[in-house]
Design goal:
Elements (H helix, E strand, L loop, with lengths): L2 E7 L8 E7 L6 E10 L2 H7 L16 E8 L11 E4 L2 E3 L5 H4 L11 E2 L18 E5 L4 E2 L6 H4 L5 H11 L7 E5 L5 H11 L2 E6 L5 H7 L3 E4 L4 H5 L4 E6 L7 H5 L2 E9 L11 H5 L4 E4 L5 H13 L6 E4 L4 H9 L6 E5 L4
Parallel strand pairs: 10-11, 10-13, 11-12, 13-14, 14-15, 16-17
Antiparallel strand pairs: 1-2, 3-4, 3-8, 3-17, 4-5, 5-9, 6-7
Helix pairs in contact: 4-5, 4-10
């Protein structure tokens, strides 16, 4: 018989999230049953719950930054045991047969990965996410959370952490590399921590200097305000890698102008309007404009191990379930430093 768990659910784009219950399937042979301890609030949760991306299948339980404890396993599970600390990120399945899946890039599954929420699983049932007290996930899409990271500060690593780790690793951030992080928010603060731990020289490019003290504390070597036009003049041809974490339409000519020869600007933000990339700004210094999206399961595990080794967790504010709707408004207003995490014991 399916198990009923407590949850917070979005029923319509214009309605606040509310308490409810959802059913979780009985564990199949390779399934892991997880008692969720904490769930991070990602801005994509808000876009989905408020119907801002135009494809929400209500009702839906958001949440794809999940940390908890294994409470049961299927008969053929080999990776995890009862009592293990585990996490679940943005997807819970993929086709497993295409080239990206075989290469460990399941996030780029050619048939489309199965989202942790607002998707349909192999049995034709809607998926529901981490704003709940329990979830059942195939062991191949679960990651182990090493000791040394609290489950609360680990939860956002399953999205925010891997979203920054993947491009930093792919474009070889490290000693001798100058890396700029655009925006010091839920994503950007993780980029600063991880790039610093990788050994890169890290610069924050933020609209103002109001978070400068935080940025330097988190590991930035330099901090500049993009509202100051001198910033773009003084930093011309400066960086090997720029990672943009903000979902705004930026003047790409000026940002691309800060790339050194063979430098790359990686777009993580998803702005409302198409991005204009001036050809000359790219061609002039053999620059590249690229994008990136989360990471595969193996890379996510690698990221968690890296964060544990370097003492990295997300900067969080833990809230009870009754504060979720207020937290949504605060995220939209950029009033959080730097990630809300729900204590699911309050559901």
């Amino acid at each position: 018989m399916p198990t009923t768990v407590n949850a917070y659910i979005a029923t319509a784009a214009d309605a606040p999230l509310e308490p409810a219950t959802v059913e979780r399937r009985d564990p199949k042979p390779h399934d892991v049953v997880i008692d969720i301890a904490y769930a991070g609030i990602c801005h994509s949760d808000i876009h989905t719950a408020r119907g801002e991306w135009g494809r929400t299948a209500f009702p839906v339980v958001p949440g794809h930054e999940i940390a908890g404890i294994v409470s049961a396993v299927g008969a053929e599970v080999t990776r995890y045991s009862v009592g293990d600390r585990v996490g679940v990120g943005c997807f819970v399945d993929s086709c497993r047969e295409c080239e990206p899946c075989k290469a460990g890039d399941e996030q780029y599954c050619e048939r489309g990965m199965t989202g942790t929420y607002n998707a349909v699983d192999r049995d034709g049932e809607p998926t529901h996410g981490g704003y709940s007290t329990g979830i059942v996930v195939d062991e191949n899409y679960v990651c182990g959370i090493p000791e040394g990271i609290g489950l609360d500060e680990a939860a956002p690593l399953l999205c925010a952490g891997i979203t920054l780790y993947s491009p930093l690793r792919h474009w070889n951030a490290g000693p001798g590399k100058k890396v700029a992080i655009v925006g010091l928010g839920g994503l950007g603060h993780m980029g600063v921590k991880i790039a610093h731990a990788m050994g890169a020289e890290v610069t924050v490019l933020s609209q103002s200097l109001k978070k400068m003290e935080d940025g330097l504390r988190l590991g930035a070597d330099h901090y500049y305000a993009t509202s100051d036009p001198d910033t773009f003049t003084n930093l011309r041809n400066e960086f090997d890698l720029i990672i943009n974490t903000v979902s705004a339409n930026l003047p790409m000519q000026t940002y691309l102008g800060m790339l050194a020869l063979n430098g790359t600007l990686v777009e993580l933000g998803l702005p409302e309007h198409p991005i204009e990339v001036p050809a000359f700004a790219v061609a002039a210094n053999r620059r590249s404009f690229a994008g990136s999206m989360i990471g595969g399961i193996a890379e996510t595990q690698e990221m968690l191990n890296f964060c544990a080794e370097h003492g990295i967790g997300s900067e969080i504010e833990v809230i009870g379930a009754d504060k979720i709707n207020e937290a949504y408004d605060r995220v939209v207003a950029s009033d959080v430093r730097y990630r809300f995490v729900i204590d699911t014991a309050t559901l």
